[in-house]
Specification:
Number of strands of chain A: 0
Distance between the termini of chain A: 44 Å
Oligomer: homotetramer
CATH topology of the largest domain in chain A: Tetracycline Repressor, domain 2
CATH architecture of the largest domain in chain A: Orthogonal Bundle
Number of helices of chain A: 11
CATH class of the largest domain in chain A: Mainly Alpha
Structural class of chain A: mainly alpha
Largest interface: A-B, 45 and 45 residues
Largest sheet of chain A: none
Number of domains of chain A: 2
Order of helices and strands of chain A: HHHHHHHHHHH
Helix content of chain A: 55-70%
Chain lengths: ~230, ~230, ~230, ~230
DNA sequence: AATGAATGAGGGTTCATTCAT
DNA sequence: TATGAATGAACCCTCATTCAT
């Protein structure tokens, strides 16, 4: 939600019938306020991590009162979840859109994937950091929520999910005899997702660390489907 | 899960002249107390993450008073640092000892490295988790320390350190024409360290997820020196 | 705990070995601090009711920091419980001590009981108010505690308990044919306890409302064992 | 549990000219909205006590917006007052209607009174609980109101009011030489009202605790006019 | 050196009430 | 008049750290 541009005419086009806020701040449109909160949270979480941020800061950064924050999210965990979920979804879309013909050579598919992820990350650096950065650690939900057990799985689990697809694809390739049979798809998938997330976050933090192409080429070369291809 | 006997003549060798107190508990030897604190901290950090633990818990788990904790460490960050540093050191030792002749074929060297890391992790699961697990996130030092800027760099930087050696080795190999020239050593090193840490932590959490050999084989195959070897 | 004198040489006699606090405030003796907190809480609860008081106020009134309050009690409910329980216990003692020979005529026993309760209430007005006043309403325990269900029964239940003895005694008397058979012991017991508590609290609030004797005489006359005695 | 039909021509008779809105919900009639709010508040207060309920809940339960709540009542205390006052009034009516000829024997009058109160309570359990239950505690008016002193007396005072009549009647009887002269009418009145309220609430909470007749018989026997009648 | 009670800033969350629509 | 989003003071409680013993 933080970085605009990429997704074209999204929500900011408050339909004429909604009376664009009178140029001033308080915007009566709940969706707008919620977006402002999510964006503020994204920025703060990206900068300071879940524990390094408090609800007052988020509210202040969003330009609203604390109470308003709690009108939109049950608690701090919920915003975090929202950011992570949004990001996962956005990433999924980006990757899907970037995917070439399924019949294309494997390397081309892998490169498209990596390129897709990187592009998304460039356009949504903060969201990417929140979802996949070092701070995307499992958070202890508040005692109350913990008791009722109704908090969604923490971000790591979500990451695990995106691992699944990779794992399946690798298993197919291995079974098709294209990959080294000693490669464990589950391990390899986990490995790739971890390296990709880490490398991308690291590079975003200081893009002078490597060229964009270097990042892509290297990740492609290390992708199990390429790295462990049978010679 | 604390530090067993693998690292030989380390601290546990309480010099004979300072025999543990009669019944065993109150141990007057500062080094022993410190070790007990470090171990307690390791267990707690591994289980609950930096933010999920408080100094009283650590002290209680170590069987000493809170005050004693602060006699041995300036603050909570310091114990954490100590655990991380110890682990890095131990890991370095383990890897060094496991390394074969420098003239051995690359794959053998890589396998020895991976095997060395995995063995260390198995013997020091909690320490490994603290140093490399998801919770090993950068911690916000307390406001006071932040102001004076005199807290050591957070764990991530330490991880970066262990990346350095890998990076240099890869650069050599690439310059020697053994690796694909498009591979960026810095990126590749980062990628490998990330995948290795993540995979090992993930596997330690539930060893039924893969066989030991599967983990090793797969990491070896994905190591840049193997994966990006020129065909 | 508020009103001294009655219980003779109780806790305030800090044994010489404990080093009487250096005349100053901070008293290192936990029992003393806890007593100060309980007393402060008693005063505040008596004056403003459970919901009308906050932990900071209690701590301030006790002359300690908030943290100290929470070092001694898990939460606000716990102090309240402590006050109520202490009071019930004290009342029980007082009544027991005041009870005449079991062979004495019923009226004498009843009078001794009422007189005992009233004396206790006079000596411990605030505690009595907290335990039996209008504010002694069931309090919603904090969400966390509610989940784990480990909060003791709220004061009302405690009141119910003291009702039990009365009920048993009335049942005996009725079965012995001394009381009107249409009298329901459970109802009567409940009724008597309620009237006694209410009347005493009301009278304590403004002793000019009735003479001490008037209160006692009237309560005795209305006690089921007297009021419903068979003519 | 809200107010059913027992009290005849009261408010529910929305004048024909103001028919409830077509489908039934949004009702434009202020009196209807207010009634819905009062009823909702009654249910919530009865269930959770004054402090256990918040204005949003009342509004939601009434099916209106929070704003509407504040259009009808100055604040939360005002609805509570309204419920209590309504109840007192209704109870007064009920009792008056049930009262037999003033020349009837005292016991018959007392029984009619008790029976009247009990019947009213059965028909308006929630209102009775709100007005007389344990939760009917004095509420701390909001700071602002407290300063200006313009909030009506809390419920207890109201209860005191209904005590007045009893007190006068008892004084008459005593002066007429029918009652023991040592009985203090003020104390006795207070005692009776308290016991009656408590017993009725207790019985309503679980009617299996006693038979309806048992409750009535016992309360009658314990009424000062009977209990303290001169033999 | 060891102890553990004391401390209070800070954080998460609630809720009575307001006010623009 | 009805609405419900917005507000922020207030409250409960935690925990890193200190310090008297």
């Amino acid at each position: 939600m933080a970085q605009p541009s990429s997704t074209p005419g999204s929500k900011q086009s408050t339909p004429a019938r909604k009376r664009a806020a009178p140029a001033g701040r308080p915007s009566r449109d709940p969706a707008v306020v919620r977006r402002r909160l999510t964006e503020a949270a994204t920025r703060r979480f990206a900068a300071a991590g879940f524990e390094g941020v408090n609800s007052n800061q988020i509210a202040r950064e969003a330009g609203v009162g604390v109470g308003t924050f709690y009108n939109h999210f049950r608690d701090k965990h919920e915003v975090h979840q929202a950011v992570v979920l949004d990001t996962l979804e956005g990433l999924q879309d980006a990757v899907t859109r970037a995917a070439p013909d399924a019949a294309a050579p494997v390397e081309q598919q892998v490169r498209a994937l990596v390129e897709g992820v990187l592009s998304f990350a460039e356009g949504h650096a903060d969201r990417f950091r929140v979802a996949f950065g070092a701070e995307a650690a499992p958070h202890r939900p508040p005692r109350s929520a913990r008791a009722t057990g109704d908090v969604a799985q923490p971000s790591r689990a979500q990451v695990g999910y995106s691992t699944r697809a990779t794992e399946r694809r690798l298993a197919q390739l291995r079974d098709a005899g294209v990959l080294e049979p000693t490669l464990d798809p589950a391990v390899a998938a986990r490995a790739f997702v971890a390296m990709q997330n880490e490398v991308v976050c690291w590079w975003l933090d200081d893009p002078s660390r490597a060229t964009r192409e270097g990042v892509i080429e290297t990740l492609v070369k290390l992708h199990p489907a390429i790295a462990a291809a049978r010679k």
